[in-house]
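Ticket #226: bound-state structure for zinc ion.
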Amino acid sequence: MTFDRSLKIAPSILSADFADFGREIRAIEAQGADWVHVDVMDGHFVPNLTFGPPAVKAFRPHVKTVMDVHLMISPVDAYIDAYADAGADILTAHIEAGPHIHRTLQAIRAAGMKAGVALNPGTPADAVADLMDLADMVLVMTVNPGFGGQKFIDMTAKIRRVRELIGDRDIHIQVDGGVDPVTAPLVVEAGADVLVAGSAVFRGGSVDNADVYGTNMAAIRKSVTG
Ligand code: DX5
Ligand code: ZN
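RESOLUTION: The complex was predicted; output attached.
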């Protein structure tokens, strides 16, 4: 993966058909997805459960772009090698998931992946100030994690502060939660370059009617680029 700050859309397969992940992934990539966002939930860190390493490993051969795995689990460290083995390109852990995020980010990189650090809406930007040399991405949550289809929470001031902390380092800013053609321009203007979107991409479409995914992604892109 080479670094650039161009706009990237990362559809969240949390909004896909859970019985048909392979075809859903291929459909969103064919329609122009830049990355594929995979939401892992444990029913403990967040009040919802999705899937674990064997499922993520099964997704891997379908992903030709970037497999971006967002862990909403606690603890994290015991599972890092399993997600490396599953083929994650980027593995993101929440700063709130345990007392040793510094060690977690080191371990993610040591396992050969890019390391992301995620911030819940209640966590301030400066919580990542001492992690900048260990992170390849900062994920600013714009909903409380656990479910798709929630209302966007305005975190633009936090995104701006994270952008300042990053300076000239090659670190992505990802935004996740309630991103659609109305909210996307706000977060991009504040400094985000990777937009996760679940319901706004999958709404109204299906693998047999995948043009809708493309139309939905184009609407997000157009809202940002004009
Ligand atoms: C929320 C997940 C998100 C979710 C976004 O906990 O991390 O990735 O799928 O869904 P939308 O775009 O519908 O808010
Ligand atoms: Zn996510």
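RESOLUTION NOTES: The chain has a mean pLDDT of 98.
TICKET STATUS: resolved
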